[in-house]
Amino acid sequence: VQKGLSQVEMKNKEAAYQAWLGYYKSQKMIARDTTRLVELANEFSRSMGLDIPPSIPKNVLGKMGLKNVPGLRTK
Asked: Which controlled-vocabulary keywords does the entry list (predicted)?
């Protein structure tokens, strides 16, 4: 699995991270605690072999309702 993940382009990993956050943010039972949601998203990014979670544009974070949540990196 790790060998396969190492072949995936960074832009695809970034897109997967952002999509993961967007999907789970829309799930009301999960998204109540945004700090925990971001912790889980960052675990997901580590599972893809990333040491540092991808950054997301500020305007996208604003639309997701995740502005200024600890653990998120912005562009």
From this structure: ATP-binding, Helicase, Hydrolase, Nucleotide-binding
